[in-house]
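User: My collaborator sent over this chain with a note saying "see what the structure looks like." That's all I know about it. Can you take a look?
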Amino acid sequence: MVAVEDGRGMGFLCWKYSHYFSFLMVKDRNIVVNCTLCGGSKTLSTSKTSNSNLMKHLQKQHASTKLVEKEPEGNVGDSSSVDAIPAKQRKLDFGQPAVQSITQPQLHRLIARYVVEDMKPISAVESHAFRQLISHIPVRGRAGKAPSRKTFSSFLNQEYANMESELKNTLDMVEYISTTADIWTVHNKIFLGVTAHWINAQNMKCEKAALACRQFMGRHTYDSIASELDNINSSHGLSFKITSTVTDNGSNFVKAFKVYQPPPESDDSEYEEDEVTFVSIGDVLQNGGDDADDAISLPPHQRCASHTMNLISCTDVEKWLLSEAATKTIYRSATTKCAGLWNKASRSTVAAEIVEDIITKKLLVPCTTRWSSFYYALERISKIPLVELNTISSTLQLKCFNEREHQCIREYCAVMKPLTVALDILQGEDHCFYGTLLPTLESLMTKTLAIKNGLQILVGLPDTVVQAVKTRFAHVLGSEDALLAAVTLPKFKLRWLHDQARKDLTKACLLVECRKLLPEQDQLQPGTSATNTTQHPGSSKEDEFFSFEENEDIYATAEGEVAEYLKSGATGLDSLNHFPMIKKLSLKLNAATPSSAPQLKGFSAWET
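Assistant: Without extra context I'll predict from the sequence alone. Here is the result:
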């Protein structure tokens, strides 16, 4: 009988000749020991359930040695202890420690997480197989018990209320928040979803939360959308905290934010007398709904950059390709033949096997709702040599590609690749800051124009893409907020700007904004004015006569911080902790995301 671990955790062998061996370690299904008769230099391996290898070693190497059996465990001289030793060797015991039990509330939370995150029906808790599974989870010394459907529904409602309360408390501590909103149709029902995004000022980590995902009743007109969004914002106490709301380019969203923007503040009426206007109470009661509409106020609107780029690729680029006879003929011919391959490969298993046998890959089939899937499908075909591509086409009894069509596909993919990379950046899995948008657009235009020289067929396509970016993103390219958002991200700063004049202008804008954030105690000391005076030696009359105002000292802190920030080599967001004014700017300007992709990903689960 072999044992490996005692109470001290040290190895030993419980066998009649085990005292001739010293235990080393466990290796897979074997144990490794040293033979003490060999002076400890001989290492042996034997099974956990058998000592035959060790016995053979003793008989072969130490035949001249008289082996003495070890006394059995128990009281020495007690014959009953010898009789109690079983004849059959016992196996090694490597039993795992007992599983710690949990409490019933913890079990309920685990079940709730399973049901909510995997979007299971509440009736799942009544499933016989599920209840049997839960019964094997120890709960404080007894078997676990799944709650009934009614009890579990009440538990979910209570947990939701607790979670919402915790979320409101968290949002109360945040100074700058951005939101995304989207409307989705699933199973003949319309849903409105809103998510919140912000930067934690303590650890400079991006955080997000779902504010609402509710069924939208009736027609989703601009006024109905505005009313719902205002209700969601006010219910979470965010009406005056939201820096911007990101939505797609839908006309209903665009009109809602255009109509229900708060009126600009005006200081012209500082000295005007208040005018009293008498209104009939009947008119007030009759026009109560109009007054309610006037009370709606939405935050600044930001159009989804990903949706805008999709419009460039699907609308502007497609329009140019079909506007000229030369490009129209070859582009349509090439994409029609590609569509034939996609249809065959997706609808026939035999065709899919033929494709995979020839190129050892599968063809990617584009999705009608995502342009990037069309690009990746074309890119897969462009990388197939023309000979192999035509072998596939002829085998599937489809029209073959000619050299110009294959060249057209390659050029299209080359020109559109920077746009695809930009899309992936703006709607990536990781949080993307608003400050990423402007450097992405600048890099997109630069890289797209750089491809122009190597084109033969689609020569005018790069200019079309760049012009479309300038037109559709004109509000971003000329936005000072977008510029400052990029500069206040340590990984960008001024590196992405190539024009020195523009760098100087951006630095000046950053300095102006930082000066606005100077605390009052730094600008105005108690008992002094905002300006300092230079005193010169001499009489008091002369000192009073030659007193000159100096206000440059109050800006020394801002100028020094901007200079140190732009000079530092740190690229992590946490480096902003050393620059409080720039950090405050970044928290405000980069709270928003450039696209509403987080909202779309949340809705993707509903499609199933």
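A starting point for your reply to your collaborator: The first helix runs from residue 52 to 61.
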